[in-house]
Amino acid sequence: MSCPHARDIAPVPPRTPKGCEECLKTGSRWLHLRLCLTCGHVGCCDSSPNQHATKHFRHAGHPVVASFEPGERWAWCYADEQDLPVPDAAEPYLR
Ligand SMILES: [Zn+2]
Ligand SMILES: [Zn+2]
Ligand SMILES: [Zn+2]
Question: What percent of the chain clears pLDDT 90, i.e. is strictly above it?
Answer without folding.
Answer: 92
